[in-house]
Amino acid sequence: MNKQCFNPYLPSFEYIPDGEPYVFGDRLYVFGSHDRFNGKLFCLNDYVCWSAPVSDLSDWRYEGVIYRKTQDPMNKLGLYQLFAPDVAQGRDGRYYLYYTVSFSSVMGVAVCDTPAGSYEFYGYVSLPDGTKLWDKKGDPMLFDPGVLVDDVGSVYLYSGFAPKRGVPAFLTRGRKRSFNGGYVIPLEPDMKTVAGEPKLLFPKAGEAEGTGFEGHEFFEASSIRKIRDTYYFIYSSINGHELCYATSTSPTGDFKYGGTIISNGDLYLSGRSSDQEAYNYIGNNHGSIVQVGEQWYVFYHRQTNRHHYSRQGCAEPIEIREDGTIAQVEMTSCGLNNGPLAGRGEYESRIACHLTSAKGAGRYGVYFGNITFREHPYFTQSGKDREDNPTQLIANMRNGAAAGYKYFLMGDTGKISVCVRGSASGYMLVSNALHSHPFSRIPIHPSKEFVYYSSEKTSMPEGKQALYFTFEGSGALDFRSFVLA
C-alpha cells in the first residue's frame, strides 16, 4: 500500500493540541501545546515541534524539545504549564515564540535562529517603560497569543480570554482579572514592546448583540492569517468545540463574523447542535489554517482518554472561495491525505473520526465532564506517557457503540476482519453510515487477548465510502484495528 496520511496526523503516542501550522522554507511546521497522556491538567509537558516536507505530509519528523517550562524566569521550578503558543518570523529573520505560563497573564517571548531549534528566553511583552503589559489588578487577561508580522513589517499580537465565569484570582497570581473578549496589541519591531493602545476587537458572550457574532462569541484561541488583502482571525467560540473565523481588510478593526470552519463533534452539520447530537466526544478546540502548495488546511484537535487533558491534533482540507468565505468541513479519517484511503489493508481503530455510544456522545468538561465512564467508548493507549511505541485503541465499546471512518475508496473488497479483545459476545456490524442497515456481520466472542474475527465474504459498495463499526451484544470490547481484504 502506498504511504497515506491519517487523522490524527502525528503518531498515536503524541498529544499536541492547539496546533499553529506554518510553512517555513520547504517544510510544514506545527507548534502547539504539549499534553501528557492521562494528565490531570492541560499542557503538562515541554514544547516540542514536528515538521513534514511540503511534498509529503505523511512524513512527519520529530524535531525534539524546543523550549522547556523551566526556561521562563517566572517558572524556574517548572511548577506551571506552558499554555498554547504561537510563532512568527521577525523582520530580522529570527523566529519568535509567544506563550503564557499557565494563567499568569504575562506573555513570554523566546527566540531562535531556526523554526524548530532551541529557543532562548527573550523577554516579556511590556510597555515602553519596561513594565509588563496588563500586570495590575483588573487588567484584561493575556492568553493564547496569535502573532502577525504584516507585509510592511508591522507586528500585531492578538490575545484574550472570555470564559462565562472568569478565572479565580488564586489561579491568576492573586490578581483579579477582567475578561472582555479578544484584543489586538501593536508591537514594535523588537517583537515585545507595546507600540500603541490595545484595542478590543471581538465581543464576549452577553455583549455581542448586533455585532454578527451572536451565538459564536469569542472565547479563546486567537490566531491570525493574512490571505491576499484580507485578514482572517481564527478563534474558539464560547461553544468550545468549534473553530470560527472573522475577516477584515484591516488588522486592527471592523472584523465581520464569517462562520464555523470545523467542530470536533461535527455539530452544525445537518442541523445538529446539542452536545448529545455530536458524532464525536467534544471538548475545547484550538488551531488555525495554512496553505501548502495550492491547498488550504485547517488544523484542530480532538479529545482522548475520557477527558480533555490528552488532546491530539487533526487536520482537514478546506476551500477559501473566491468571495473569501470558508464553508464548514466535516471531520474525516483521511485529513491530509487529500482524498479517500485505500480500500485494502489494515487500519488502526484510532483513526476513527466519529465515536459514539448507543445514547450518542457528549462533552468533556471538567475532569469528569458529563460522561458516564461505564457507558461510553473512548480513545486510549496502554502504559504511560512516552515518545515512542504507539499502542492506541478504542476501549469500552458496549452495545450500540459505533466507530466511524471517512473515507475509503472501495473496489473489490470482499472480506472484513476486526481485531478486538474483551468480555464481549455478539456481532460487529459494518455499514456505510451511522445507524444504517449493515452489509456485514462479524461474530465476536470473549477473549482476554487480541483476536482477529472475520466476516463471511460480502459484497461491499464500491467507490468513495464511509465505514461504521457498531457493536451489538453483551459485555465490552477493546477495538485495536480492522482489515479490508
Automatic annotation (TrEMBL):
UniProt cross-references to SUPFAM superfamilies, sorted A to Z: Arabinanase/levansucrase/invertase
CDD domains xrefs: GH43_XylA-like
Site (Important for catalytic activity, responsible for pKa modulation of the active site Glu and correct orientation of both the proton donor and substrate): D144
Gene3D superfamilies: Glycosyl hydrolase domain, family 43
UniProt entry tagged with the keyword Hydrolase: yes
Signal sequence range: none
Residue runs in coiled coils: none
UniProt xrefs under InterPro entries: Glyco_hydro_43, Glyco_hydro_beta-prop_sf, Glycosyl_Hydrlase_43_Enz
Keywords: Carbohydrate metabolism, Glycosidase, Hydrolase, Polysaccharide degradation, Xylan degradation
Molecular function terms, GO-annotated: hydrolase activity, hydrolyzing O-glycosyl compounds
Record's keyword annotation contains GTP-binding: no
Superkingdom of origin organism: Bacteria
Record GO biological process: xylan catabolic process
Family that this chain belongs to: Belongs to the glycosyl hydrolase 43 family.
Designated name of the protein: Alpha-N-arabinofuranosidase
